[in-house]
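Appendix C: a fully annotated inverse folding record. The material below is reproduced so that readers can follow the format used throughout the book. The structure is listed first as tokens, followed by the designed sequence.
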């Protein structure tokens, strides 16, 4: 007779033998189907080592993110963020965008700033918290899209740190918001189509609609992706479902209608303000004119679209080539069924529907970057986001294989963990956030001239040089809604320039400001210094006749807010005689 302890021992050994045989059998099948050869590592040893490596890599990434947060949380509010905050500030003081404010961004661009100002606060710390919150939301969305927590951490942290490396000027950029919206939208889309709750399609539609309300190049992301999946289901003669039980009717109803909701809401808001016609007018004139300025050659755009992750892209192409070689060697007739293990993204004669949907998103991001044509780093964020999650999933899948695929997969992961993330965090930590000499000097001069009592009596001739950031800090309302000097100092024969000058001059003469502040340079492309004034001789003569130069300031130290040090901007203060 055997006692209870002996029986438990026998039972334990039985379960152990059963599990061991199951693992060996599954490993053999996996090797035959996925590797086309013999597995060179024992399954338990391979899985244990891989698990330890993933945890260690995630710890390094999170340490880099923590270092980035600690060293950058005091970044100031400058650049586009300060300008959009100032637009929201003018709205709070009764001015209407497009009608009273000559704004060239879609409404979502400044409504995001308005929402943050009225929830978290209007200071630089609130904006920093918002930006870091976007990074964390992105990490979660990456993980849902990949169905792998490690890929979420890897892609999310690398993406957030690449964004940080771009510098203080790109803090909370509109395209960064769009990138996170696109990620969250794809997370909802894939959750629904993988067999989850079909109402997740509403999340995709809402996010795609919000992205279109921020950036016009993303207006058609929702219809393109949803239409692609509907056509895919039709081509595969699976009218009942595209994947996982999501029908074409659900795609069009839940996804399509929810995509319209943010756009209709913005349209109704403009209509209620009486600014809808002005929005259309600005879109046909100022927005179109701005889109044609400072455009880069196609070769520049192609290279810089993926410049931060170019080594990863090369490794990813190698991984894809290895996958394809193994598929051909194994004689697969088509892609394997999407599973938790392969993330639904294994290569076959045709890519799986998930890969194809993500590729459509990547193409939309790429064309958005090329269409905008200016090559600014932040304009590639949506493209980089979807590219990183796709590369991360393939690197993780390759790391679970053997041979060359395993090697290249781990090299790709290691490059992100050991080089790209640490170097980006270190570069961001070195930027000189303390240098606010331009704004400090201008705010000090404005305080001497009257401070907030100057509201309605100050006109900046600037865009992102720092004048409107100083007015925002001083809580001074501009005398007019003309915020972009690029529409005043161009070729007079251009109808857009002529009309902008006419509107500006009417407002200027009707209520001459007490103070005019001219910042040197002309964004996005123009003459250096104060030479832009010579491009509009009538305005230059009016300044010389009716105003006196009270002060001209050029801060002494260079500005180190991004990858290079730039010469500081200068400003002149004119006071009416």
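Designed amino acids, in order:
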């Amino acid at each position: 007779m055997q006692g209870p302890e002996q029986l438990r021992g026998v039972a334990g050994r039985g379960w152990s033998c059963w599990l061991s045989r199951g693992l060996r059998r599954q490993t053999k099948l996996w090797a035959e189907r996925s590797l086309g050869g013999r597995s060179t590592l024992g399954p338990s040893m391979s899985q244990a080592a891989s698990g330890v490596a993933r945890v260690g890599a995630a710890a390094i990434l999170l340490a880099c993110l923590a270092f980035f947060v600690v060293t950058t949380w005091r970044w100031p509010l400058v650049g586009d963020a300060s300008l959009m905050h100032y637009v929201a500030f003018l709205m709070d003081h009764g001015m209407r965008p497009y009608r009273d404010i000559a704004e060239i961004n879609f409404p979502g661009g400044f409504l995001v700033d308005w929402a943050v100002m009225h929830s978290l606060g209007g200071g630089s710390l609130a904006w920093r918290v918002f930006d870091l919150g976007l990074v964390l939301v992105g990490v979660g969305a990456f993980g849902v899209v990949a169905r792998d927590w490690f890929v979420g951490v890897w892609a999310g942290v690398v993406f957030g740190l690449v964004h940080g490396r771009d510098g203080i000027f790109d803090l909370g950029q509109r395209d960064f918001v769009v990138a996170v919206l696109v990620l969250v939208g794809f997370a909802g889309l894939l959750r629904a189509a993988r067999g989850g709750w079909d109402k997740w399609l509403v999340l995709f539609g809402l996010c795609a609609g919000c992205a279109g309300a921020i950036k016009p190049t993303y207006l058609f992301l929702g219809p393109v992706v949803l239409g692609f999946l509907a056509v895919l289901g039709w081509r595969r003669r699976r009218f009942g479902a595209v994947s996982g039980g999501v029908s074409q009717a659900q795609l069009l109803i839940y996804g399509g209608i929810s995509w319209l909701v943010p756009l209709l809401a913005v349209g109704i808001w403009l209509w209620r303000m009486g600014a809808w016609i002005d929005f259309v007018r600005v879109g046909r004139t100022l927005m179109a004119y701005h889109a044609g300025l400072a455009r880069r050659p196609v070769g520049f755009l192609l290279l810089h679209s993926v410049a931060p992750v170019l080594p990863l892209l090369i490794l990813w192409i190698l991984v894809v080539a290895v996958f394809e070689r193994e598929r051909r060697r194994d004689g697969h007739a088509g892609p394997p069924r999407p599973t938790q293990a392969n993330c639904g993204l294994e290569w076959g004669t045709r890519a799986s529907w998930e890969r194809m949907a993500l590729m459509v998103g990547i193409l939309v991001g790429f064309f958005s970057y090329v269409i905008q044509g200016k090559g600014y780093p932040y304009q590639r964020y949506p493209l980089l986001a979807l590219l990183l999650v796709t590369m991360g999933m393939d690197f993780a899948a390759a790391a679970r294989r053997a041979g060359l695929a395993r090697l290249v997969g781990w090299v790709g992961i290691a490059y992100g963990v050991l080089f790209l993330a640490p170097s980006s965090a270190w570069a961001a930590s070195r930027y000189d956030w303390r240098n606010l000499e331009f704004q400090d000097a201008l705010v000090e001069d404005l305080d001497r001239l009257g401070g907030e009592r100057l509201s309605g009596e100050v006109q900046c001739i600037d865009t992102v040089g720092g004048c409107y950031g100083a007015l925002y800090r001083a809580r001074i309302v501009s005398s007019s809604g003309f915020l972009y000097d690029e529409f005043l100092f161009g070729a007079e024969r251009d109808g857009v320039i002529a009309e902008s000058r006419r509107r500006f001059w009417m407002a200027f003469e009707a209520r001459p400001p007490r103070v005019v502040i001219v910042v040197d340079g002309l964004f996005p492309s123009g003459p250096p210094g104060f030479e832009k004034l010579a491009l509009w001789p009538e305005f230059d003569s009016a300044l010389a006749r009716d105003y006196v130069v009270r002060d001209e300031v050029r801060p002494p130290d260079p500005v180190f807010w991004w990858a290079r040090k730039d010469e500081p901007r200068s400003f002149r203060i004119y006071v009416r005689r």
